[in-house]
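> tool_call: predict_assembly(chains=four)
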Amino acid sequence: MALDKEEMTEKVLAIAEALLNEGGADNLKARSIAEQAGISVGSVYNLFADLDEVHRAVNMRLLDRLGATGLAAMADLERQGVTDVRHRILAMAAAYVRFVEAHPGSWPAVLAFNRRRATRPGPDAYDALLDALFDIVAGVLKAGDFDLDDDRRALAARTLWSSVHGIVTSGYVANSNSRQAEEIWRQVELLVGVFVKGLERGGAFAHAETKSA
Amino acid sequence: MALDKEEMTEKVLAIAEALLNEGGADNLKARSIAEQAGISVGSVYNLFADLDEVHRAVNMRLLDRLGATGLAAMADLERQGVTDVRHRILAMAAAYVRFVEAHPGSWPAVLAFNRRRATRPGPDAYDALLDALFDIVAGVLKAGDFDLDDDRRALAARTLWSSVHGIVTSGYVANSNSRQAEEIWRQVELLVGVFVKGLERGGAFAHAETKSA
DNA sequence: AACAGGAAATGAACATTGTTCAAGCTCCAT
DNA sequence: ATGGAGCTTGAACAATGTTCATTTCCTGTT
């Protein structure tokens, strides 16, 4: 009746995610995991090389879920026949905001971890998951009647999503009271509105072309 | 000849900043500080309640310097007679980008620390310093011929700056090779261009007014 | 059924860290 | 000179990540 190795890995990840969500990265302790999973400290190190690997695995799952959530939100709008670019981007942003709200402890940990990774070389699965998010946004932009080639659309998607990301993460440094949530949403609406208008006019790239350093 | 208490505090902060910049938050160790400062571990705890306070103090200094850098950049343009809003915002963004580049280790630590603080209650000096940055941006926007009341201008300033922040921090997860730097700058240029155009048209707030949740 | 071999689990042990605090020390006003 | 307030010290403690020799458990073989 003992759990499979794979099942135990799942159990450990679920526990780790809960620990991260409750107390952030500092709360992910080998002994806490072992105790809650009913195994010994050493066994945790049999499943994962170190706690970093546990943290990474939890983050991967979160990013995966976030991507799925975004795709689901897009599919919903598709089914409803909503094609307006502004609406669709706002829906993506809303999905993102909801996701961050739903993971108040672990989402900061995802970001901090991602940043800490900076010294390491080369891209990895982490980047692939983030790129997937950018691709969804780029797909939405493609549906608009903007005059953009693939490169510019990709750039616009990354710019837009990094901006949304900045708004959400800057906003959620404080407690998630409704004032904060309302402020974040107002900023997102302004950003998206301005962005869509700017792209529609077609002149957004005019300066960038002539002034790049 | 022994150092003043204040001088020693300065020395400790300088050492702490160097440690943070070299190895991030994990590299800020009481024993490292003590050793490099030529004092005992206990003495560090006489100057600061704990390492968090050291970290906070370092961050304050960094935010202070960032604000001063931004103001200096604005003063430069003023002296040159540059009034174009787009140029001035780009200059602010450039100052921000340069600052982050100059503190590759400690800037992430500032952000992570700021985020970790999330559970605590109420605002503090930290928020005041961040607000000061927003105010500079709002000041620049005020010079534009946008049709904005104070509230909307403040909202626009926060939105714009959070977006720049998101672009810069998303971009600098990787090593600071020139590809990364170039990408960041293209995104910033696109964002600022789109933003200014969007505000100029005056319609950016039309949707936000009617659709707020 | 008995046994051998290997895989997995164990938890004691080690190294590193933040933090505390009793004991000593310094130095200045009296 | 001396009293004492404050400073400094570094040993000691607790919490933690990580390792590894030992034990336990299972599985296939005879």
